[in-house]
Write a structure and sequence with these properties.
Immunoglobulin-like; 3-stranded antiparallel β-sheet; 2 helices; disordered C terminus; binds zinc ion
């Protein structure tokens, strides 16, 4: 380790242990070899905090990029495949929504109620309607079509139509 004469500032590279007394060969001054400087605890704390924060940010980024696709996650997956506006004999315009329910598992699943959600351009929900699909059970890997006539009047501000399963049908073995 390095020690410095505190009188004439001559540097010595020597194997003196901390606490031992050294006499300077130049000026004859004696001094006690100091222990190696301890690292600043605040800086140490700050550095570990930074490391922790970057680790958390990294983990969050990994979770966000690996967010599971709901299609792969849920046993049943419902999606809207089409819609059309029909006019009844009474002149009432109705919205007919068609879609599929897919059983993505190797088990037979009971099909729960479905809900159709209509949203405007800003994503605000205009209407949500619950209905029971005709299929009550879906075989492993099977899919079923649904067709639902909405009771809400058709308005021009409907910009998106989504369907969701209201509960997870329990597997029936
Ligand atoms: Zn000296």
């Amino acid at each position: 380790m390095k020690t410095v004469c505190d009188f004439c500032k001559t540097e010595y590279n020597m194997s003196a242990r901390a606490g031992s007394t050294v006499r300077c060969a130049i000026c004859g001054n004696t001094w006690t070899v100091a222990a190696p400087a301890r690292r600043n605890t605040f800086l140490m704390f700050f550095a570990s905090l930074c490391a922790l924060l970057s680790a958390i940010i990294f983990v969050v980024a990994v979770i966000v990029t690996n967010r599971p696709d709901p299609r792969k996650q849920e046993p049943l997956y419902a999606s809207v495949t089409g819609h059309q506006v029909v006019t009844t004999a009474d002149g009432v315009r109705q919205l007919v929504v068609t879609g599929t329910i897919q059983n993505q598992t190797d088990d037979i699943y009971g099909v729960p109620d479905l809900e159709i959600i209509l949203r405007d351009a800003t994503g605000r929900i205009i209407s949500r309607q619950k209905f029971m699909p005709s299929a009550t059970l879906l075989d492993a890997g099977a899919s079923s079509e649904f067709r639902h006539v909405l009771s809400a009047p058709v308005t021009s501000d409907i910009k998106s139509i989504d369907v969701r399963l209201l509960t997870n049908g329990g597997a029936k073995k």
